[in-house]
Every structure is written in C-alpha cells, then in structure tokens.
Amino acid sequence: MKVKILNGKLAKVLGGLGAALGLLIVLTPFHLAPVCQGLLELNTGKMVHMRCHYTGQGEIFFGIIIVLVSLIFLFNQSLPAQKSLGGVLMILGLGVIILPTNQGIGVCMSPMECHATAKVLCVLGGLTIIVGLAAVFQEKIPGSTSKNI
Fold first, then answer.
1. Could you count the other beta carbons within 10 Å of the beta carbon of residue 135?
2. Which of 6, 68, 71, 136 is deepest in the core (most CB within 10 A)?
3. Where are the transmembrane segments (predicted)?
C-alpha cells in the first residue's frame, strides 16, 4: 500500500497557523486578556484562586498541545497522518471552547474581566477547529497538492 505524500503550501500554512493559534491560546489567559487576579476567602479563612484562574491554567495546557500537534503537522508529509493530526486539532479546539463554559471548569459567575477572556478563547478555539477541518479536507481544497514552496 502506497502512502500519499503531500508537501504543499497549504500544509505549511495550516501548520504555521495552528502553531500561532496555540501560542495565542497560551498567552491569552494571563497576558493578552487576563483572567481575574483576586482570591476567594473560604469559610476556614483560607485564600484560594477563583475558577477562572484554573481555567486559564487548563487553556495553557491546551495551547501547548495545539502548538506541538501543529508543529508535528508542519513537518509531517504523510497525508493520512496530516488528516489525523487535523482531527486532533479539531478536538483540541473544541476543548478550548468548552473549558471556560459551565461544562468545563468555567469562569466567575458575576460579570468580571474573565468573561472577556472566555470570549477570546472561544474565538481562538473556533479558529483552531477551522484549521483542523482544513487539514482534514486539504485534498479537496484547490491548489493544495502543489510542490514545495
């Protein structure tokens, strides 16, 4: 069985775009659109971080994984592997969207600055899903079978 090899401009653009999106996801929670910096005081007097802080930490983990998967995608020339990595990017993008919602860790209940963080992360997660979809269906996109840049 012969494995189809693709090494076109589209694959390089998708890999680079995925890595850039992953880097933006890493930087968003604590630098670009920071989550709340306050602490909660428990009944015992102990101070703990709010939910949005832990959501930010989880998003950093997702972002790092997205960067790694995108770099593997960028340097891999096998079409089946690139399609699989595109599927992984779609799943990771969905995770980025779900984490700041109530189905994930969530953000603060009252409107605070972490709600802006959640919106930015939802947009970045959606763009990651689009990059993953383009990677899965790259054969169907015109001009994607071109040779090296």
1. 27
2. 6
3. 56-75, 87-105, 117-137
